[in-house]
Fold each of these.
Amino acid sequence: MSLAPRAVLVHRTTEYEELVARHGTHGQAAFFLASRGRDIEEVAERHRRARRALTEVTAAVAPTWRQAQVERGDLDRFLFAPEDVVVVVGQDGLVANAAKYLTGQPVIGIDTDPGRNPGVLVRHRPADAAKLLAAMGTSAPPGSSVDELTMVEAVADDTQRLLALNEIYLGTPGHQTARYRLGLEGDGGVVEAQASSGVLVGTGTGATGWLRSLWQERSSRIALPSPTEDRLVWFVREAWPSPATGTTLVAGELGASTALTVTVESDRLIAFGDGIETDAIQLTWGQTVRVGVCGQRLRLVG
């Protein structure tokens, strides 16, 4: 007998909850902010909106469905199942945080703070949840709008693997110079030794964030990809020219069948995705990591 679908509600600790946890009580948190010219009510109101949205979405799950909730910090320990429908209640970035742990489950993004969030990935309101969930079942019905968003992956030579929806960064965990050899597969074996602030490889979804800032800063003529396009864009940050290091390979594109290779020449480099440095690939001198288009996609309900 097949299992009933399960709605997995992904949420995150609010700024207000973090403030109270840090200072002990609401009053102490309010005093801390007031002494710096800030009013805690603004933060508290965002907290109330987020919790109302989560309550409304929870109530929208049909009684015949199973249900689970997972906080952002527990995503790496949560076991998603094939029949899950994932409902992300929060900000755009929370969808990206969840994406790397999924294997094709449909995702519904619920915006808890319209007007403050861009709404690129959290496209719906809490009031839409019941209708969207009823339409989903175990998979998207014919004619429904589901975007297959391209993801980026990094695979190290020791089988460590990392996925990301926006971008993957390779560099040092601090602010030291990253030293490595960078190459492009299918480019005649051209490899360049570099010293830089790291390498950023991003998708069309990430082209609205960190990747775009680098693109604008350099007035790059590279066309940024769309979120569903099988193409990535990469930039080397602050490459340093020296007798031993070059600055020729500092930006480019990667198609579905090409990849960027980075061979570590520092004691330690890391690769992390979507700004989550705590979940990173650890790389040591001599290791090689390959970064390219991921065969897996994020199925985002439009």
Note: The longest strand covers residues 288-301.
Amino acid sequence: MPDRAPQPVERQLPTEEARDLIALVRDIVQREIAPRAAEEEDAGRFPREVFSLLSGSGLLGLPYDSGFGGGDQPYEVYLQVLEELAAARLTVGLGVSVHSLACHALAGYGTKEQRAEHLPAMLGGGLLGAYCLSEPSSGSDAASLRTKAVREGDDWIITGTKAWITHGGVADFYTVLARTGVEGPRGITAFLVPGDADGLSAATPEKKMGMKGSPTAQLHFDGVRVPDARRIGDEGQGFAIALSALDSGRLGIAACAIGVAQAALDEAVTYATGRQQFGRPVADFQGLRFLLADMATQIEAGRSLYLAAARLRDAGLPFSREAAMAKLFCTDAAMKVTTDAVQVLGGYGYTADFPVERYMREAKVLQIVEGTNQIQRMVIARHVVGPESR
């Protein structure tokens, strides 16, 4: 059996424009992202210049209105772009997903004046965003957040700490959820905070198991003054805004997970068809063939699931249940596929000379971010059997 080089994923895309877009992404991946991914991840280097390139190429605002600098692309297309980017380097794919999440509140709930003032720079002006919901004491229980915003004339004074912020310390703007009223979800409001605001500082980035090139840090708000013109939506509407963003964000994580899984499968197939044992390629052995077949099946199932959810979103139909299912299945599949890829490579898979050990470490975080997979199961169960008894 000859060595088998990985083939690009055959994508069902709705338009010729979408096909051209995927071709552009693959060209950028091959020239600018993939060749340096392993080295830069090992060094913990954040590729800001790549995000500038993606912005200049129109790839940071794909699902948003072209009237404000977006790409007018359906989620069905946008998510497949994320998958391509994540397959090359998760720091980039996840970074684009987080940026899109950070733009969601203003694009969906901002006034016409706010959108006209801020969105063009956010979507295509070279800026990079971050999303600030989690806190040291409120992760899964996001409605219990404690960061406060107090009204002072025409301004708000924000005080508190946010945690686990992707792009913390390097973002140009932050979408921040803060408490402006009563305890619980009804007392939360959304704000657009500049990255260079006085009183805003980032802690030393977390030392993570994977995604070392993507900075994750606490953000400290020490009396950060934000004009009321940067409040997004109504007072007390912030939690609803956050939940609507997370439904879309979960699809982004699902697509990134399938990208990482696809990269792991490609590496496993290349190795298995080239590695000789007992006088023939190890891919000839049934046990390994079945393992690769299961990996491929999980990837295709996950891709179909996230695309089905995306098409519901594009049609303006409810997709919260399907988004949770896609996030749950795709990230669990990525963890399984990347672990199996390490097994296919045997001892080599456990070394940093091959990328599958990095894929396995990166896949783990996808089961945690944008709502842990335990939270996804709770969301799905509520849709299936109703809310829990109190």
Note: The radius of gyration is 21 Å.
Amino acid sequence: MGGALPVSLEDIRAAAQRIADRIAETPMVPSASLGEIAGVPVWLKLEHHQTTGSFKLRGATNAVVSLSPAERARGVVAASTGNHGRALAHAAKAQGMVATICMSRLVPENKVLEIRRLGADVRIVGRSQDEAQGEVDRLVREEGLVMVPPFDHPAVVAGQGTLGLEIVNALPETATVLVPLSGGGLAAGVAAAIKGVNPKTKVIGLTMERGAAMKASLDAGRPVQVEEVRSLADSLGGGIGLDNQVTLTMCRALLDDVLLLTEAEIAAGMRHAYAREDEIVEGAGAVGIAALLAGKIRSASPVVAILSGRNVDMEQHRRVINGEGAAFAEDSP
């Protein structure tokens, strides 16, 4: 890994020490069913067992505990598609702070309600992550709140990277890691950690076919905006920010490939997680399983798929399990 990248292996190791007593070290378990399908041993990193139901707690906690006393007194704010907001609300509450979370109307209601339950000030703005970010910018400018971005921030990326350290510590011989890809905080952090330890390990980013902002930005060589649409993988929605400073550079340097998944493939991943692995995961958390089921992964042994979140609306989950999920996503405006 080049020294010029915004987040180093040393940054991630420091974050691991900083947040060790504030997060859960999540299990990693073998999947006999997926190993049979893939033809190589497959392990599942059960990050959806994290305290707030997703990996986002790592980055949010590292960012919050890294603030100065003066910054903590001002309060924190962020735009979110749900999971970062929940994580930031939890991390802020643990430090005696109140978080303000700005979200678009596309964020599922179950995620909004949970963030409110944690005591955050919730603002619903527009129909895109970019519109929600506009409200964040206003609050920073006019009210002095401290922004903790969902992905494009060195402390957030370093916190997410601690998940990668757990993978290589548990399974040093890992050949390929499948990581959900949205704004790139998780993918950048995990890739920096894993390749910092073993540069030969492949890290593959996985995202939905519709509205994949990081994939479009990587292809264009610069941040680009995409239309946000409903998806079973709603946590992977949103832009990467036209002034992206951290994650685009890191994803370009560190990811070995980026693969797109259809709504039907994501639904199949969720069904497999439930029926064969006894796990309830949201669409974004199922993309690794989905890619394996779709035959899109060709790898040496072993493969690790990160199950990144569980915060799914249970009515939607029921529809997916009954075979209605893909139609729901594709037919929605």
Note: The radius of gyration is 18 Å.
Amino acid sequence: MIKADDAAPTGWAAVGRGTNGGAGAPAESRYEVGTLSELKAALANNGKPTAPKIVYIKGTVDGNQAPDGRILGEQDYAPGYDIAKYVSCFGPDGKVWSDQTFEYCKKQRQLRQTGSNNMKRQIEVSIPSNTTVVGLGPDAGFVGANIVILSATNVVLRNLSVEAPVDYFTTWSPDDGNGAWNARFDAVSSVTSDHLWIDHVRLSDGRFPDSEAPRGPNGKPANRHDGLLDLKDGTDYVTISNSRLSNHDKTMLLGSGDEHVDKDGGKLRVSYIGNYFENLQQRAPRVRFGQVHVVNNYFTGSTDDPHYPLVSEAQGGSSYFLGAGYESRIFSEHNAFDFTGPGADPSIMVSSYNGHRFSDTGSWYNGQSADLNAIAKASFEGNRAEAIAEAEAAGTAAPDWTGWDFTTDVGWNPADIYSYKAFSTPQAVRNHALRFTGPGVLTVKQ
């Protein structure tokens, strides 16, 4: 049983003043909601949005629900938009857009932008400071909403099911690698916020896997989902615990870019504790700058999953679980990785994206002890050699990170900051993930 004013657990969110959301909210600032309109009114809190408040979610809040109760779709946001026509305007190779490719191209370009902006205004839900949002049952939560914690402090999300919003107006970017889709809307994101606790939450693509989306210029389905749980622009002091994230591509991104040291340097302190990460094709998480603790999480995936196959770099793909990005300092311990299917290999566990500081202790691959440090080192050194060779061929200076050496000294230890006791066997990590993560485990007392 939990009460909505329970204190935050061990982890970064408990550091300093801690995170208790709307604990202590008076009776008039405690709300039960079941629609988007009711939710937005509750968050406004009678003109005092940053005062302590607790919002109980009963049933499913649909981000596409208009005030009159209708569920809006693509044609409501942009009548006449057609993604197939939009794609055709990039030409036969998908490389160059022209308003003159077909007579409808200019109109489709305008409709895509208009629809995207209309959809943003509809589905975005901004969570203010000093707020607890908690689900009243195992299926309470959100579908189709873009939940943003923007410039807020002291926010708690618990016992919620979140289905990622479908971006009907996702953008084809021909210059992104060999061409890529870039959706606009995260399921949950934090921007310049601090002291956040996300606990017993389930996040996934739910009913709308990208494998069933319309095809793009490269013949592959459009990516209609962006991040599942992204932390950006100086977000700090976050604990994500006992949650279940599944069936998604671009899962959890920490930091907005290698160049954003002014925003992210010294911040992005995040704990991932006791979560279940299932069929996540990348970014579980991918870390820039952050000082991140990853402990007792259970990672599963397969090379032949019908909707979310994981294909490691060693197999010619781009899937990975932990991503060590620029200036990241990941402290990993006692995580269990189960990766199966034809060609499955342990390199899937960690990849370096210019990150040279990574430490793991006691993790397992398919039930056996695993050397994640060696995998991270090999990935970093391979990328470094490639970057140096590319710079020499172009006659340009190599990036600064190519002058660094890989090390397992990340410069910090979570045990020096907060108290915790980790499971010491893969069986215990699996059991916790399978039985005690996501919504419905806890009984909520109003």
Note: The chain has a mean pLDDT of 95.
